[in-house]
Amino acid sequence: MDAQRLARLDDSDYEQLVLDHAHPPARDPGVWAVLIDPALIDRTRGALNTLFQRNSSVLRKRREEREQFRLACFARGQAGKEEWFASKREYDAWRHRAANFSRTVQNALSEINKAKKDLNRSLNHQVAQNHRDRLRDLALAVHQHQAAHARAGGIAEQADYELWRALDQITVPIGPASEPTSLRTMLDIYWTDVTPVAEADEQRAGAERTMRAAPGGQAARFSGVPRARHVDNGKHLA
Q: Max Cα separation, the chain?
């Protein structure tokens, strides 16, 4: 029996199947596993809720009818009272069965709700992990862009600095306390393998750190340096 087959059952047959397997000692573990499958768990919970509400409605209606019957019996004097007490044993037995039914359905609902909570937690964890993986891919791409620029030794544009700064500005929660940790730190500690750094690579990395630390993304040693001019400045003074 699989989820697709059970999904084709009409509501009445589905409710009966759920009821037949609501009580743990009487259930087929294989069928119950299908009933709490992600594809069916919401329908199973809905069926249990319907069964519980229907039983509660019957209990309430019978209690109201029983009270009306008591008043009518007591109004007839001793004969009516005897009829009332004679019917009490049958009513109490029925009410006991109905109460047991409610407990069975409620316990099954508790199982379903726990299974649903675990399922949601698992799905949320998977979604969060997928997002973190994509963020890791993005951080690696930015890091590789910065490393390639450092190897080429070219002059970075302001857009490059803004892109590289994202590694320091964007954070993700990490650890039991969900401490905000920058993408660059994540790359350094968690997301990339540690390899020995050559002296030339360290020098290039130092140059990049200097450029990132400068105001406006410009190294301080270049601040205030005028542009080079032609000797005659176009005035033909020579």
A: 139
Give, as one character, the DSSP assignment of residue 180. E
Per-residue tokens: 216 = 């406006």
Report how far residue 216's alpha carbon sits from residue 27's, in angstroms, rounded to the nearest whole number: 70
The string of pLDDT tens digits covering residues 75-130 is 999 999 999 999 999 999 999 999 999 999 999 999 999 988 888 787 777 777 88
Region class of 228: left (phi > 0), else alpha (psi between -120 and 50), else beta: beta
Q: Which residues of 187-200 are buried (b: 16+ CB within 10 A; e: fewer)?
A: beeebeeeeeeeee
Residue the block writes with tokens 């069964």: 51
pTM: 0.55
Torsion sign, CA atoms 37, 40, 42, 47 = negative
